[in-house]
Structure formats: structure tokens, C-alpha cells
Amino acid sequence: MKKLFILTAVITVLTLNTGCNRKDKIAPISVIGSWYAEYDKDGTFYDYGAGDDVSYKRVIQFYQFVDEKTGYWTEFLFCEGSTYPYIQYGGLAGLEYADGAFTYTVNDDGTILVTLINSLEDNFWTLKASTQKITGTDEGVNYTLVRASENQINLVKRWDDEFHGGSAEDEYLFTDVTDDPATQPSN
Fold it and tell me: Is 171 helix (H, G, I), strand (E, B) or coil?
């Protein structure tokens, strides 16, 4: 009886020890949906049409995480006092063709590694996600992306259409917040 008690105690200790040493897997944060940031930033870019540097004062960034590994990004730069963007980087024109098409991974700690698909050079960056926001850095300026409103989504789509000749495809862009999986209750 004493041997049975000792054997039971040893098995219990081993089982508890094994359970304590095992790291439980934490499900990565889901970022699927539309994200928007607007912030002030002083900078310049070269305008090939004008043949000169152009100053800008404000930036809008938009990310659309389509599924667990693909999405697209765009950025609009605004001159001082302007409400219409002067130039666009990236784009939403269908995943396989968009300048802003990317692949991404989300680590357990919320770090997002974004890599542009249609870039001729290695073009990747890192973001940090939580359940309510995504943060990033744009040439030393920190910005915070939040879930995009329906008005923000429609505005970005309109500008993308205008800069790309009407090429933003509705099937790739959540045009109504109620269509965005991120705004739907989980099952």
C-alpha cells in the first residue's frame, strides 16, 4: 500500500511538473479588416511631373488585411492646407496587381511583418497589433491605425480609383463596415 501511495505521488508530481513547463499556445491576434491612420508629418517627395521636390504636411495610411496572410496598403500625402491628396503610394487595385499588395504574418506577441508583393526591391516593415489598434513608425513618426469607418473606407476607395483610373476592385475592398469581418461578432 505504501508503494502504491509513493508511485501515485511520483506520477502526480511528474504530471504537474510537465504541465508547468509546457508553454500554452496563445492564438495570434486577428487583424483582418480595414485599418486607418491620419497624422501630421513634414516631409518631401520628388515629383517627376514637376521635376522638383514637393513638401507635404499630412499622411493617411490605409491597410486592408484580406485574410490570414494577404492584404494591401496605401498611403496618401497631402500638401499644407489641402484636403485632397497630392500623391499616392501603394494601391488597392486587386491583390495580384496592386502596388500595395502584401503578404504578412502575425506573431504571438502581436508583431506583424508586412512584405510588399509587387516591389522590385526588398520592401518590408513591422507593425505591432493589439485587439483595438495597430501601431507603426513612418520615418521616425509614430502612428496608430484604428478600425476604419465606412466613410474612411469609401474615401480611400474613391481616391484610389481617381489615382489609378478607377481600378480599385470592390470584391477586394470592404466598402461597408457591416461587410468587414473585424466588425462582426465572433461565433
Answer: helix
pLDDT, tens only, 21-75: 545 555 668 899 999 999 999 999 888 888 899 999 999 999 999 888 999 899 9
Whether pTM > 0.90 for this model: the answer is no
* Bridge partners, 128 (sequence order): 111, 135
In a domain, 24, yes or no: no
Structurally, how many domains does the chain consist of?
Answer: 1
Residue 111 domain-assigned (yes or no): yes
- Determine the residue type at 24: D
- 124: in domain: yes
Q: What are 79-112's pLDDT values in tens digits? A: 999 999 999 988 876 555 678 889 999 999 999 9
Which residue range(s) make up the domain with 53? 33-183
CB 108 within 8 A of CB 26: yes
- Classify 124 as helix, strand or coil: strand
pLDDT at residue number 177: 43
Strand 124-129 to strand 87-90: parallel, antiparallel, or no bridges (unpaired)? unpaired
Whether residue 162 lies inside any domain: the answer is yes
CB 161 within 8 A of CB 168: yes
> What's at 10, amino acid-wise?
V
The strand pairing partners of 110, in sequence order, are none
